Amino acid sequence: MRTLLLASAFIAALVGSSAIPVPVPVPAPYHAFCRTLWLFATPCAEVSATILGQIQAYDPLIGCENCQYALVSTTARSIKANHTSPDGLQAEDITITFNPTVMTAGCRVTAQSTSLGFTSLLDNGLNYCNLYNLLSASGLTSSPGFMEMTNEWACLGYGLATCKA
């Protein structure tokens, strides 16, 4: 056993002293974020089209004054958008992914909003409200089988959120 430990230490020293630089991971800055899971007893194509329609209705480039959502990209299984605060000082990336459920022919949706700037991790529910307000405005919160699952670990500031749709 002692020989194995010495051999391991020797190999580690050789690798550590080599002329090849070893990349050191740089810690990323902390950003406020929210991840949530929504369940629907509605097919994903319908849920996706409804959310996409709401983002487009809120898109200032399409003619919505004082709206802060902008569509970035869309595929059959995901939507990416940006949200900007009314004062233009805060911006968040939004990603929504759709996965069909087999048993109910419904849809499992994962949604995430992440602040782009370096901010306090406690955002008073801003990222949660970005997601919830979009969903609420689309009418999907009263859709058959709707259920939301998140908590303070997955969605920083969730307990402090006071969303105004």
UniProtKB/TrEMBL annotation:
Keywords: Signal. It comes from the Eukaryota. Residues 1-19 form the signal peptide. It comes from Scomber scombrus. The lineage of its organism: Eukaryota, Metazoa, Chordata, Craniata, Vertebrata. This is Uncharacterized protein. The keyword Signal applies.
